[in-house]
Design goal:
This protein is an alpha+beta fold. It is 35% helix and 24% strand. Strands 1, 2, 3, 4, 5, 6, 7, 8 and 9 form a 9-stranded mixed beta sheet that branches. A hairpin with a 4-residue loop joins strand 8 and strand 9. It starts with a helix and ends in a 9-residue tail after the last helix.
């Protein structure tokens, strides 16, 4: 499976689109294996959802960027969720020990329900989702030179009043 992701990655690296559609409401396993969480439970926050695997070199390069995003914009309502797709959890844990992060780690189920629902085609694949659950940007692969455009779009989404996006207000965002 990882070879298919690599092939797709090299064919489509850096691809982004501006089409808008609703984010799938899939269930993610949290760091504590006994806890799972529906993606829709984050409504009211801007999400940056990143699918990654330990065998993906660009994934390691994206971790410092995602940590900076989380630290810089957390108070404005950003939640970064990095969804691991490794077949063996030990591979992910080894990667995480070598790559410090300041954002939430989640695990897709063994059936890869979330990855299929998002139609993940490359590693990493990232989705910028507004407070109402609409996908505004998709990035396939990680290119440091494209992070500024992504950050500008993120700032725009964070500055929009909750009513404009139709998101559910949380106590933190009121």
């Amino acid at each position: 499976m990882k070879y298919l992701f690599f092939l797709t990655y090299f064919l489509s690296v850096g691809f982004a689109y501006a089409g808008k559609q609703s984010a799938p409401d899939c269930t993610l396993g949290m760091d504590d294996v006994s806890v799972s969480k529906k993606l829709n439970s984050y409504r009211g926050q801007v999400l940056y959802v990143d699918f990654w695997a330990s065998w993906c070199p660009p994934c390691g390069k994206s971790f410092p960027f995602m940590s900076r995003l989380q630290q810089q914009y957390r108070s404005q309502g950003l939640q970064v969720i990095a969804v691991n797709l490794d077949e063996q959890r030990e591979d992910a844990e080894r990667f995480l020990a070598e790559n410090p992060h300041a954002f939430q780690i989640a695990y897709d189920t063994a059936a890869r329900d979330c990855a299929q629902a998002f139609d993940v085609k490359a590693m990493p694949s990232s989705y910028l989702i507004d407070r109402a659950g609409t996908i505004h940007r998709v990035e396939l692969g990680f290119k440091a030179e494209e992070t500024q455009a992504l950050q500008l779009e993120l700032e725009k989404l964070l500055s929009e009043p909750i009513a404009e996006t139709g998101g559910v207000a949380t106590e933190k965002n009121r």
